[in-house]
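note to self: the first set is below, dont mix up w the second
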Amino acid sequence: VQLQASGGGSVQPGGSLRLSCAVLEFHVDDYTIAWFRQAPGKGRERVSCDTLVGGGSTYYADSVKGRFTLSRDNRRHTVELQMNDLKVEDTAVYYCAAVPRYYHCSEFSADRATWGRGTLVTVSS
């Protein structure tokens, strides 16, 4: 599988951006998908993860809960990350990653995942 992330850009605090991760060559429902981010000088953080295991669940980091929403678009074979009320601390390179669908988010291993190229999100006034 190949993943293609897009949608990054610059926005003021309080603004919104929508990131998209295209799943190429396979169906988006063949995978558990996660969004990660890495801010300058910081470690990688998992922002959100969506699994179809057990009927399906979506998980969010506490830092983005209530502001970010992950959704799947089966028609376009994409996984979207809607980011609202963006804060300066959301500035980071965002990556989407995928593991086979039989892995729950709790079993998501970065080493086992396929990664897309990052897309930069900059939040500043």
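second set (the one i keep forgetting abt)
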Amino acid sequence: QVQLVESGGGSVQAGGSLRLSCAASGRTFSNYCMGWFRQAPGKEREFVAAISRSGGITYYAESVKGRFTISRDNAKNTVYLQMNSLKPEDTAVYYCGALEGVICSSEYGRYNTWGQGTQVTVSS
């Protein structure tokens, strides 16, 4: 299995930006579709974005389209989430997940491995 470690979370004011990183180690990173999910207190984990193994196809939740960008660098075994125009409702713990296979998914149950999460707090 691949191991995942997220970083880059923090506290920002509404309208600000953050860039999350998820570093992978272990098995071949390019074998995995990578996804970002988030979980706010008292809520279920929800899909944010996903990116195909080559990076050529990306998927976004409607709530983040136009504000967030997912990307990956297979040479560095890292996936990123650039978050712009942040809103208080983006406040959550953000997790990256790895799904071994060709087809990405927005369902968190399909992902094989998770990182420990990184907290993002957006104040108004």
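remember for set 2: The first strand starts at residue 3 and ends at 7.
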